[in-house]
Amino acid sequence: MPLVADYRSFTDARSHLKEVFDATARGRTVTVQRDGQLSAVMPVDRLRAYFSRTVSPRVRVTREDDRTIALMDGRPFVSEGTDVDGALADLALSLREYAEDWDDRLDRAPNHAGNWALVQLIKLSTDEQLLEWLERGGE
């Protein structure tokens, strides 16, 4: 059974834009069809919360000499600092830069294609939320 759009065209959604945003403010996901593509409009806080629970940062922190190293197991991100907070802050900065690069070109690279959810989480998070996600392990 194909999905049925709440709004069958962009024009229909545009003429009901207030209703679209009122529905998302109540926590509802609204669908819009355009040129055969079905898209969803949803509350960012709910989407971000979902990604923060389902995308695991898998951060491992170690000490080497006088440096603290933070790395993400299974992902190509390693950062360092003088302490855990510094290493995680540097890791968060690296993730922000990666999300920008992913949007520019890496989304088409086969070895980066699986990072879509990670990139969305990064883009939808404040700096504080991103650090909390790294510290708490996604929960």
Topology:
Elements lengths: L9 H6 L1 H9 L4 E5 L2 E5 L2 H11 L4 E6 L2 E6 L5 E4 L2 H21 L11 H9 L2 H10 L3
Antiparallel strand pairs: 1-2, 3-4, 4-5
Helix pairs in contact: 3-5, 4-5
Textual characterization of the structure:
By secondary structure, the protein is of the alpha+beta class. The protein has two domains: 8-41, no CATH class; 45-134, Double Stranded RNA Binding Domain (2-Layer Sandwich), CATH 3.30.160.620. The protein has six helices and five strands, in the order ααββαβββααα. A three-stranded antiparallel β-sheet has the order 3-4-5, covered by helices on one side. Strands 1-2 form a two-stranded antiparallel sheet. It starts with 9 loop residues before the first helix and ends with a helix. It comes from Cryobacterium flavum. This is Prevent-host-death protein.
What characteristics describe this protein?
single chain, Double Stranded RNA Binding Domain, 2 domains, 3-stranded antiparallel β-sheet, 47% helix, Prevent-host-death protein
Fill in the CATH topology of the largest domain: Double Stranded RNA Binding Domain
* Rg calculated over all Cα atoms: 19 Å
Structural class, judged by helices and strands? alpha+beta
Q: Count the helices. How many?
A: 6
User: In percent, how helical is the residue content?
Assistant: 40-55%
Strand order of the biggest β-sheet: 3-4-5
Sum up the overall morphology in one term: elongated
- The fraction of residues in strands falls at 15-25%
Provide the CATH top-level class of the largest domain. Answer: Alpha Beta
Number of strands: 5
Mean pLDDT: 92
Q: Whole-Å distance between the termini? A: 35 Å
The succession of helices and strands, N to C, reads: HHEEHEEEHHH
How many discrete domains? 2
pLDDT under 50 segments (min length 5)? Answer: none
Biggest sheet descriptor: 3 strands, antiparallel
CATH architecture field of the largest domain: 2-Layer Sandwich
Protein name: Prevent-host-death protein
Organism: Cryobacterium flavum
